[in-house]
């Protein structure tokens, strides 16, 4: 089977340092793949590289069998490769729903106010937004402003915004950062459910507990390099991972690592 995403030797260099150093990573259709690593390991850089937000100095990327290494970011998104941003940027004076509309049709941003109030949006877009809001459980909050939401709810708007584009593969950059344990577990369930909708998922987090619980397969990044990969069970047993992340609690499956926010 051709993977939906196949990154080969992805290398990104910032100021002479390889933020990504020959990263090989592939995701099969219908798979839930995680990427973990400490702050500064190069996780966001990898998403930037895959989505075309930063150039590669070496390597190649295939999406759905096509070489997208030099494709413009908006074309990648249009073909179904959609990301969230770690630094969530919502429009504070637009409702939750309007924040999703802007993401669906950025070219119509200038005519937004009129369009929003006249509700002249094509039914297909309205449907996608309804679906995305429902997926993350924000339907009842659609008319609220971001400032009236909790941190966790605002993070969900970011996820919904990506889902409204109806991705084939969604790349989530620390969607759980700053969530409490219950919110994190809920989010994990929501994300897992996306597989049933035909959406493959790539989840970045530095919370090993979350990622081990929800992913089919994961990669561990350290100083720009993949230092381990495998199923959650294999990662739990990996000596390098245990030494770096898991400590003694790994042996009995107890994992307690998630702390604080990444950047
Ligand atoms: N746009 C950029 N310009 C220069 N250096 C960057 C840029 N983005 C990231 N870096 C550097 O690349 C390394 C990896 O960063 P990042 O990908 O954000 O790590 P992570 O997401 O794992 O925390 C860090 O040393 C960071 O300072
Ligand atoms: Mg990051």
Automatic annotation (TrEMBL):
Signal peptide: none annotated. It holds the Pfam family BCA_ABC_TP_C. Residues 5-248 form the ABC transporter domain. One of its GO terms (molecular function) is ATP hydrolysis activity. Keywords: ATP-binding, Nucleotide-binding, Transport. The keyword Chaperone does not apply. GO terms for cellular component: plasma membrane. This is Unannotated protein.
